[in-house]
């Protein structure tokens, strides 16, 4: 009975939402999504040009759009470093969470990487237990005892 309900929910979702590739016209709506989900902000340096550059070198950015309102409710950005895809900016608006959209975005991202034959890497905050469980179910394994460091403000680099 659970599988029938699941199928019914996906049929309803397909009528209301579309999974599609990002276009340059989407940036403002995408930026709103990222701000509301905590994925954006000027400190990250994400802008339309950075996205465009990443897409030109093999990346991909997929969106879930509400067909009726045009609202972008979810995103998954994949960047390519020449040997593997890095998944990031996977997020869904809070009002649409717990409906399978996060898993759908992740699954579509994995499908893209697998078709290209690339390894896949992602970073997830330790507190994001819900996402970690999804990633584990989809085949991700913990890399080990690594710490992640980043320089966002290039003026802080000291030689």
CATH topology: Aminopeptidase
Number of helices: 5
| Approximate shape | globular
- Element order: H for helix, E for strand: HEHHEEEHEH
Residue windows where pLDDT falls under 50 for at least 5 positions: none
- At the first level of CATH, the class is Alpha Beta
Q: Calculate the mean pLDDT score and round it.
A: 88
Query: What is the strand tally?
Result: 5
Count structural domains: 1
Helix content: 25-40%
Please describe the biggest sheet, giving its number of strands, its sense, and whether it closes into a barrel: 5 strands, mixed
Can you describe this structure?
With 159 residues, the chain is α+β, with helices and mostly antiparallel strands. It has a single domain, classed as Aminopeptidase, CATH 3.40.630. It is built from five helices and five strands, in the order αβααβββαβα. The chain has helices at 2-16, 27-37, 48-56, 101-116, 129-137, and strands at 17-21, 60-66, 72-80, 84-92, 119-122. Strands 1-2-3-4-5 form a five-stranded mixed sheet, sandwiched between helices. The protein starts with a helix and ends in a 22-residue tail after the last helix. The mean pLDDT is 88.
